[in-house]
Design a protein that fits this description.
Keywords: Oxidoreductase. It comes from Litoreibacter ponti. Pfam families: Mannitol_dh, Mannitol_dh_C. The protein is α/β, with parallel strands linked by helices and 496 residues long. The chain contains 22 helices and 13 strands. The strands form 4 sheets. It has a 5-stranded parallel beta sheet, with helices on both faces. The chain has a 3-stranded mixed beta sheet with strand order 5-4-11, sandwiched between helices. A 3-stranded mixed beta sheet has the order 9-12-13, with helices on one face. A hairpin with a 2-residue loop joins β4 and β5. It is globular and about 65 Å long.
Length: 496
């Protein structure tokens, strides 16, 4: 093993037998045939959905459900090169406080060319052997109007795809073009499966696909709505970004992998059983098929994803680099517990085997895992999607139920302070949101006029009109600038 660490084996199908102490595919990958095209080949998919399929394949099952990878952004081309060079194999490293382990996932067998018009992607999805097209394109990638929750038909990429349905820019336009070809050829539709952190992710995907299709071909839109399926699901696993440290971890196992993935020792996948063209039996390896996906995802999105937003900005402002470090900070850990118990959990129903309070205990342990180097910067990224998606719904519930919203107002104030672009020690926070220029300018203005932050209705809707929330926000943002982040959090923790 020491020799392998010093001279790691370049990962490929041909070198799997040289790896020692690592679980490798026991199935014949040359005999795998595709059933899934997955768009958005980031770390999460490879540690989550691909892993469930790999585990089925290890049991001799689902060898006709292999994954073909795809991407629609120019940057995906580099990922394609990395993965094709190692035969689409991925090293998965589990970071358990009791010890690390590694396995090689082989469920993916190809990665399509990344092209501006998505021609290769459309052609492959149009083939009848593809029965599921799944996506991880981030919660901000579904062309949702944050103020209304409806479809954003005015976005430039949507306008382009509506005018050029045969040469679309977006993943959704490509899916529609492929479905059009399948309809013309007499093939059935495929299941459209979102695996992103969105409440009602299947319903959101349906809205995007049907609305975009209707702009250019209403009859096709009606056919898709009748024939395709859009199962809702809840996905959960903490998967940090890959950098030099993660590549070094793989080398420690004797593996030279250009794109390894680290992950925590926890996974959950709850899926609505609505598949128009069949599916793998993921429940045999730990997934759950349930008609209560909404309740599971509500708990996860409000408490885990919302909890991440509670702590990430505050942590980065204080110079804490990782989520585990925020959980070791008494003030931030206290902030998370008080906000969740007082202001989020009252609006979350229990699910089989788990209450909201017990779920908070679970995520505190997960967030505090020192082996997971999940950065506050990564978790704070794209607040312009995550704050409206994960925090604002709890604010609205609290206003409607007349329960406290003071802590959630503080979380919004911390986001405003974060977007001003400097930490408490004066160091610069580099751009960390697709809308950073707008956020940064507004945050600087809000230092003098706090209410200007809530005036961004594209993110807050009408929340500025609710004095109970708006007044609390102004109070906390003023306190942050006057007294500092730690003192302001401490003051909140002393409130009843």
């Amino acid at each position: 093993m020491d020799e392998l660490k010093e001279n790691p084996v370049a990962l490929s199908q041909a070198t799997l037998s040289e790896l020692k102490g690592v679980d490798v595919p026991r199935y014949d990958r040359a005999g795998l045939t595709p059933g899934i095209v997955h768009i958005g080949l980031g770390n999460f998919h490879r540690a989550h959905q691909a892993w469930y399929l790999h585990r089925l394949m290890q049991e001799g099952l689902c060898h006709d459900w292999a994954i073909i990878g795809a991407g629609v952004r120019a940057g995906d081309a580099a990922q394609r090169e990395r993965l094709l060079a190692q035969d689409c194999l991925t090293t998965l490293i589990e970071l358990d406080p009791s010890g690390r382990s590694a396995e090689i996932c082989g469920a993916m067998i190809d990665f399509l060319p990344v092209e501006p018009d998505n021609a290769a992607l459309i052609a492959r999805m149009a083939e009848p052997d593809v029965r599921i097209v799944s996506l991880t394109v981030t919660e901000g990638g579904y062309f949702i109007d944050p103020a209304t929750g409806g479809f954003d038909a005015q976005h430039a990429d949507i306008v382009h795809d509506a005018a050029n349905p045969d040469a679309p820019r977006t993943a959704f336009g490509a899916m529609i073009a492929a479905l059009a070809r399948r309809r013309a050829a007499g093939h059935g539709a495929f299941t459209c499966q979102s695996c992103d952190n969105l409440q009602g992710n299947g319903a959101v995907l349906r809205q995007t696909i049907i609305s975009l299709a209707a702009l250019s071909d209403p009859e096709l839109a009606a056919w898709i709505e009748a024939e395709a399926s859009f199962p809702n699901s809840m996905v959960d696993c903490i998967v940090p970004a890959t950098g030099p440290a993660e590549i070094a971890l793989a080398r420690g196992f004797g593996i030279d992998d250009a794109a390894p993935v680290t992950h925590e020792n926890f996974r959950q996948w709850v899926i609505e059983d609505d598949f128009c063209a069949g599916r793998p039996d993921w429940d045999r390896v730990g997934a759950t098929f349930s008609d209560r996906v909404h309740d599971f995802e509500m708990m996860k999105i409000r408490i885990l994803n919302g909890g991440h937003q509670v702590i990430a900005g505050a942590g980065d402002l204080l110079g804490l680099e990782t989520i585990a470090q925020t959980m070791a900070h008494d003030g931030i850990r206290g902030l998370l517990r008080k906000v969740v118990l007082d202001e989020i959990a009252p609006h979350v129903d229990p699910v089989p085997g788990m209450t909201p309070e017990a779920y908070l205990d679970l995520i505190e342990r997960r967030f505090g895992n020192p082996e997971i180097r999940d950065t506050t910067r990564r978790v704070a990224f794209d607040g312009s999607s995550r704050q409206p998606g994960f925090i604002a719904p709890s604010i609205r519930n609290g206003l409607a139920a007349e329960t406290p919203v003071e802590g959630l107002a503080l979380v919004s104030a911390l986001w405003a302070r974060y977007c001003a672009g400097t930490r408490e020690d004066g160091s610069v926070i580099e751009a960390n949101d697709p809308n950073w220029e707008l956020l940064n300018g507004t945050a600087k203005a809000a230092q003098k006029t706090p209410s200007s932050w809530l005036a961004m209705r594209q993110f807050y809707g009408d929340l500025a009109d609710h004095a109970r929330f708006a007044d609390a926000f102004v109070h906390w943002l003023t306190a942050i600038y006057d007294d500092g982040v730690e003192a302001t959090i401490a003051a909140y923790l002393k409130t009843a």
